[in-house]
Design goal:
By secondary structure, the protein is α+β, with helices and mostly antiparallel strands. The chain has helices spanning about 1-25, 60-70; strands at about 30, 40, 40-45, 50-55, 55-60, 70-75, 80-85, 90, 95-100, 105-110, 115-125, 130-135, 145-150, 160-170, 175-189. A 4-stranded antiparallel beta sheet has the order 8-9-10-13, with no helix packed on it. It starts with a helix and ends with a strand. Pfam families: Cu_amine_oxidN1 (PF07833), Gmad2 (PF10648).
Length: about 190
């Protein structure tokens, strides 16, 4: 009788725990997409990483989507997050990567500017926190790599707003700004 009772108790416990566990697990039924997806005008197709659909919403693997749009995807081990950054550019500047946070940033890119000189500034949307210039190894029409290292004290960081990098050339005729490129560095809330 004791064995029968113990068996019933164990059986009920297993049934109850399986039911509770099944309620905790949420299932998603993804189906392979039957319609094409174009990225920058090209049809996306990848047998290893197909386009999926869930309840009318299209899912494409993040790395495949970002690379298809010429963006970079990386895992930030220190902050434990995925970071996606599109390349920002105009006819004179290309930003390849922005790394850092909380006032300390490293910006790498290439520039094609007259006499190999360009100016840059960091603003908080209201005030300029830093202005400087950079002399490159080559001037236009050549593209030359650059690295800008920025270090702002915590007291200058906005409590609520976005730090913006402004990169530009100054006109040889009248010192007006040319080929301006505005790049967000970090948003604070």
């Amino acid at each position: 009788m004791k064995k029968l009772f113990a068996g019933i108790v164990i059986g009920c416990s297993l049934t109850l725990s399986t039911t509770v566990f099944a309620q905790m697990v949420k299932e998603y039924k993804l189906v392979e997409s039957t319609y094409p997806v174009l990225m920058n005008g090209a049809n996306y197709s990848n047998e290893e990483w197909p386009i999926l659909n869930y309840n009318g919403t299209t899912y494409i693997p993040l790395k495949e989507l970002a690379e298809g749009l010429q963006a970079k995807v990386r895992w930030n081990e220190e902050l434990k997050r995925v970071e996606v950054r599109g390349e920002q550019s105009n006819q004179a500047f290309v930003i390849h990567e922005i790394d850092g946070d909380n006032g300390s940033y490293t910006i790498t890119g290439e520039a094609r500017v007259f006499e190999g000189v360009f100016q840059y500034a960091i603003s908080d949307g209201h005030d300029y926190l830093l202005t400087d210039h950079l002399q490159l190894e080559a001037g236009a029409p050549e593209w030359a790599p650059f690295t800008i290292k920025v270090s702002l004290p915590q007291s200058k960081l906005p409590g609520n707003g976005t730090l913006m990098l402004e990169i530009y050339e100054e006109s040889a005729k009248d010192d007006s700004r040319m080929n301006e490129l505005f790049v967000p560095l970090q948003s604070f809330r």
